[in-house]
Amino acid sequence: MSALIHPTAEIDPGAELGSDVSVGPFTVIEADVRIGDGCRIAAHAVIRRYTTLGPRCRVSEHVTLGGEPQDVSFRDQVSYLEIGADNLIREGSTIHRATTAGGSTRIGVGNFLMVNCHIAHDCQIGDRVIIANGALLAGHVSVADRAFISGNVVIHQFARVGTLAMVGGLARISQDCLPYMITEGSPASARGLNNVGLRRAGFAAERIRALKQAYRTLFRSGRSLREALAELESSQSSEVRALAAFARSTKRGFTRGNP
Fold first, then answer.
1. Fold designation for 4-198
2. Predicted structure pTM score
3. Please, what is the end-to-end C-alpha distance for the chain in angstroms?
4. Is the model's pLDDT at 255 over the cut of 70?
5. Catalytic residue among 122, 140, 176, 197
6. CA dist 48 → 28, 36, 121, 152, 162 (Å)
7. CA dihedral 145, 147, 152, 157 (to 10 degrees)
8. 121 part of the active site
9. Cβ neighbours of residue 37 closer than 8 Å, sequence gap 6 or more
10. Within a 10 A sphere around the Cβ of 101, how many other Cβ atoms?
11. Of 16, 110, 232, 237, which is the most exposed, with the fewest CB atoms less than 10 Å away?
12. What confidence score (pLDDT) does residue 18 get?
């Protein structure tokens, strides 16, 4: 099926649109844009140059994709925004391309970005991530698969959010958020295991128990961080070992548990 383009849309001849694409009224699509098969672009969206949109994405009204990074050092370098398949991007959201020449901001597969969220330059978003209304991710933030970022969260540049982590609403995140944990507050702290997210992801009871024990070892055992991580690294649970590896690899530090 050919693309269905509203007559008021402005599409540069240098843009590439796949089959069965629909483009709503007053949308602007610049040159050097590639839009995959089956995408739905609603009214007043703007898709800037050097943006790639995978198949079956839905882009709502007043979304801007591939805008120039909000970086005072940016000098109109050629950089990219790469968005995978099956993403839902709701009204008013903005995602910027990378700030370094040849670099990419990347959004994975099957993500749900809610109203008015912002993903800045060079962010790396995994698969099946949910980012709720008004959340703001600064440059170079990474968010791993199946994380949930609640409404009006703000995340400092270069911070990381781990796999199946949940960040509570209004949290101010300046350090890494551990995988499988709930992080919330301002200043933020790890408040416990993301039990609901783990169950929804199909984790069996024994896998959840291992992660609960890992939380206790890290934050309730009285052990030093070095001792606690060494114990986690010897666990038979692959998730617990992944948790330890995430903590070991931090550059900004990670949010700790409540005292």
1. UDP N-Acetylglucosamine Acyltransferase; domain 1 (2.160.10)
2. 0.97
3. 60
4. yes
5. 122
6. 8, 15, 14, 25, 30
7. -50
8. yes
9. 18, 19, 20, 21, 55, 56
10. 11
11. 16
12. 97
37 is catalytic: no
Would you call 122 a catalytic residue per the annotation? yes
Q: Could you tell me where in the chain the CATH 2.160.10.10 domains are found?
A: 4-198
3-state secondary structure of 122: coil
Query: 29-38, pLDDT tens digit by residue?
Result: 999 999 999 9
CA angle 77, 56, 14 (to 5 degrees): 40
- Give the H/E segment covering residue 44: none
Amino acid at 71: D
Given the residues 44, 62, 118, 121, the one annotated as active site? 121
Please write the tens of the pLDDT for every residue from 92-115: 999 999 999 999 999 999 999 999
